[in-house]
Amino acid sequence: MKLIIFAFVVFSTFPLSRLAAADWRPIDPAESAQKTPRLDPAADAEILLWDVKVEDRLQGEDLSLLLTYYVRMKIFTSHGKEEQATVEIPRLGRRTIGDVAGRTIKPDGTIFELKKDSIFDRELIKAKNLKLHGKTFVLPNVEAGDIIEYQYRETRQNEIAQYLRLYFQRDIPIWNVTYHIKPLATTWSPYSMRTMSFQLPQLEFKKESTGFYSISRSDMPAFKTESYMPPEDQLQAWMLIFYEEDKKLDAAKFWKELGKKDYSDFKPRLKADGQVKKTAEEVTSAVTDPGAKIAALDAFARTKIKNANSRAFHLTPDERKAFKENHSPGDTLKQRIGTAMDVNILFAAMAGALGFDARMARVPDRGDTFFNRERPTTYFLNEFSVAVMVGDKWKFYDPSTSYLEPGMLRWQEEGQMALLSDPKEGTFIPTPFTDPEHSKRQRRAQLKLLPNGTMEGTVEYTYTGHVARERKLQWEDVTPADQEKDWKEGETDRLSSAEIGDISITGIGDSSAPVVVKHHISVPGYATRTGRRILLQPAFFQFNQGVRFADNTRKWDLYFNYGWSEDDEVTIELPEGWQLDQPQAPISTKLGTLGEYRTEARISSDQRTLIYRRHFDWGRDQQILIPASGYSQVRNAFDVMRNQDGYTLSLKESQ
């Protein structure tokens, strides 16, 4: 439940006091004299001070959140200069960035001020489905040994520090980080500011004379990321601040009462009128199996009701203008458009109209952090799906989310404990986990090898499950021409000499269909010609792939978003006058309980065609989180597979 604390807020602005001039703090001579890193000998720069004021304001009926940043940093190397001298401050939505100031302090005390005309408002990031603007500037005359510092204010109108994350680690070490927090002061609200700490010990707030409460940490190490690791906020140090009524409940009772309240809140909203019931009966008239009925309702809600929150439907300005708030499932059915919640509620109401027990359930997002039931707050359990009793089991559906097959949730919500609403008390039940075989990369190649080493023919890629959904999300706002361009770039990154044509891409806009990519390909120099021999790697789809795990050591646990499988078949017509020279079979291997790697290579009876098959699956039985202590075994397993993917056959000219 999102807390809407101040329902009377209006969207207006008011002037905030501005700094007449930058207010710089004195430089400690010891900081100027520091010649080497204090916290990490390998650091190119270290933050001396990260200081942020967080102030919630209420003037009349206008709310705002004011964030005032002050950053001081010591540069130790030329690489540190390259990394830190350019500052980018992102701006989201209608938030404003102001009072920007910066300066460079030399070891001898000489100061170079950042000029106002050196501060620019620019597009910082431009990528698929993402554009980010903000302020950017380059601090003047920076060299190794200098101190740089800058400050600015961020104003967020009609916002307060509700569920604001305060980070105590950055990508370089920090000598001292301090947050000053000034909550709203009201006598009429039952809500007060609360905090939760993550990867931090219990911290004590210090009351300041200005009405702020401060909290500090010293000697914070840099936070370094690794590939295939758990979510960053599961690992780094941070604090959540939020307003919430303290009901003095322990965690277990909190969840029981929340589930009961959810049931009470949603019960009237799930009521089906005559038209909803009639439509549900019509949609399921051709099927009798209970699971098939629910799947049909899911498909109807997913494809016939436009989700106004989803980019997948590409709503026109006129459609958005005509859309009015829905107050019941009947309204949503009539308009054929609604919010994500409207779509799920209509689906649940239709299921209920057919006699199914359908309820709303809160589902955590393991792509953000790992849910902990000992933290009694709705913040980490604020996404909803629909649980339906099919037979004697609860099954989960989310027709509001694009490109999900019936019975699937986003990978972020799979394998989690969801809070099921209930008239007596909320209970936690497990969400499903998609088997690796369901999220598959299936690849087929019909190829011909030429005597000069060129490989040419047709290839076909088929993606299902979570693998398919990732492709669909990647390309949902991309034109067919740009889809082809993106695909070609991906293929030529691996096969630099490849020539690709006659591309066909299907299934992008269809939730139930796999994504299928077909095209012709020619790869000059694929095989190596050495005199009277040709060296050939039959694992065409793994040719020239990089190392997945290159590091010798590991700090963080290994974490894979979901289990997946790969199924390849490569058929290669050998050049006339050439034959295999004493081929050896490739090696297959079990990967413990996590998966399997299996390969096969054989020659046709006429000795003219080579058939190579490869199967790999990973993440069986929800084994996607592996302790760092097991890194060497995982790395070795993937190295063995990579070596086998490089399995090479020798061809010789017939005598």
Question: What does the model show?
Answer:
The chain is of the alpha+beta class and 655 residues long. The protein folds into 3 domains: 29-244, Sandwich (Immunoglobulin-like), CATH 2.60.40; 251-432, C8orf32 fold; 437-653, Jelly Rolls. It contains 11 helices and 35 strands. Strands 5-4-8-2-1-10-13-12 form an 8-stranded mixed sheet. Strands 24-25-23-22-29-33-32-31 form an 8-stranded mixed sheet. Strand 18 and strand 19 (393-397) form a beta hairpin. Helix 7 (329-335) crosses helix 8 (340-353). The longest helix has 16 residues, at 251-266. The chain is globular, with a radius of gyration of 30 Å. The relative contact order is 0.08.
What brief labels describe this structure?
eight-stranded mixed β-sheet; single chain; 3 domains; disordered N terminus; 655 residues; Jelly Rolls; Immunoglobulin-like; C8orf32 fold; 11 helices
